[in-house]
Write a structure and sequence with these properties.
Radius of gyration of chain A: 21 Å
InterPro entries (chains A, B): Pyridox_Oxase-rel, Split_barrel_FMN-bd
Strand order of the largest sheet of chain A: 2-3-4-7-6-5
CATH topology of chain A: Pnp Oxidase, Chain A
Order of helices and strands of chain A: EHEEEHEEHHEEEEH
Shape of chain A: globular
Number of helices of chain A: 5
Distance between the termini of chain A: 30 Å
Largest interface: A-B, 91 and 91 residues
Largest sheet of chain A: 6 strands, antiparallel, barrel
Number of strands of chain A: 10
Strand content of chain A: 35-45%
CATH class of chain A: Mainly Beta
Structural class of chain A: alpha+beta
Protein name (chains A, B): Pyridoxamine 5'-phosphate oxidase family protein
Number of domains of chain A: 1
Helix content of chain A: 10-25%
Oligomer: homodimer
Chain lengths: ~230, ~230
């Protein structure tokens, strides 16, 4: 019997409370973790010379920490040794919501927005574990089935850590919500599910035919962005 | 015979020339347009109180203009009447690139990053056309098959315009590129395609059974994020 209390939600802040559609917001840790664990590409925003920059990049979650990586030569990572103010956003689109009125068209989606200060990971053990976590976030089972980074490769790679503290999720599910007076309009209305999955793995030209497709690529693994437990 | 010269590429700028992997960058208008036309969700970045904010939102492309919309009560749109510095990024993930070394793992992807100043659209005709374009970007054929926004709905909706001027695309395709000395390592290597599509449309509970599924939802239309011409 597990009598431990669930972890407390993330405390809302000026940055994480939306000005509208507040009923779609969640600060629940399990909800936030689930959305983050369903993806591996985030959009990382930062400010350079006073202007916003948004770049897609891989991430991994490890407990209450997120890691992103990049070349030590990349601009955001060069500036992060002293701490870089970032906004990291992960979005999954689950369905197209077609109402009878154009105004009530919408998407079903799950997103997480994380605000905070990203810092370069300097501890070699944490850095190595973070790189493993990023590979595992994309293909669970892969980190142990590839050659780990050597010291030259580790030196060329920068890893940023962002703690999960100022965090919110936003979720829309369900069908369209039309105005009552539109109910008799002759337009089809409903939801078109958006699906995501993996095609058949394509071996590299120089793959030794004796190397079999590993089990973690043949198993019925969840598709990226698919809700947990979905077909 | 079409003797017109192709349109010139977007001029590279300090903001759009990457510091690394420049061979993946493109400023070609057809390439940029193709990537934008394959999606409908962007990540819009702006600066609020000196900090970056990145929010997912719908967009549409119309020629050399992008449109995004939102409630007139939302924070970024409230601030945009005088012009809001933004970075708008669209990303499609096409494949997981599994090299023998963890270091050379990568993604096949196509992304576009647009820098510029977003301004509120005040002309009623342009605003109405932009809202149609956003519906059409998500489901081609839908704008004419739904009730257009009335004056109250138009007043509650803000539309921002962002001209395509400071723009770059970034693309990775193809297989892994391992170090020659890793060629004999016993790890599977290749690409796992990432697929995206639509499930069977789910009618709303109150849909009149006499309303048939429209052709634009039954046709073999391209999936969001799928490269043009892909299966």
């Amino acid at each position: 019997m597990d009598s431990a209390a669930p972890p407390p939600p993330y405390p809302p802040s000026d940055l994480t409370v939306p000005t509208r559609l507040r009923e779609r917001a969640s600060y629940d840790r399990a909800v936030v973790h689930g959305i983050l664990d369903d993806g591996y590409v985030c959009h990382l925003g930062f400010v350079r010379d006073g202007r916003p920059v948004v770049l897609p990049t891989l991430y991994a979650r490890s407990g209450e920490r997120l890691y992103v990586h990049g070349s030590t030569g990349s601009r955001p990572l060069r500036g992060a040794s002293a701490g870089l103010a970032v906004c990291l956003t992960v979005t999954h689109v689950d369905g197209l919501v077609l109402a009878r009125s154009a105004f009530h068209h919408s998407l079903n989606y799950r997103s997480v927005v994380v605000h905070g200060t990203a810092r370069q990971v300097t501890d070699p053990a944490e850095k190595s574990a973070a790189l493993d976590a990023i590979v595992e976030q994309v293909v669970p089972g892969r980190a142990a089935d590839s050659r780990r980074a050597n010291s030259r490769e580790l030196a060329a790679t920068a890893v940023l850590r962002l703690d999960l503290a100022e965090v919110s999720a936003k979720i829309r599910t369900g069908g369209p919500s039309d105005e009552p007076e539109d109910a008799a309009l002759p337009y089809w209305t409903g939801v078109v599910p958006v699906t995501r999955g993996h095609g058949q793995p394509l071996p590299a030209d120089d793959l030794d035919p004796a190397v079999a497709l590993p089990g973690y690529l043949t198993a019925d693994r969840p598709a990226p962005g698919a809700p947990h437990g979905a077909a």
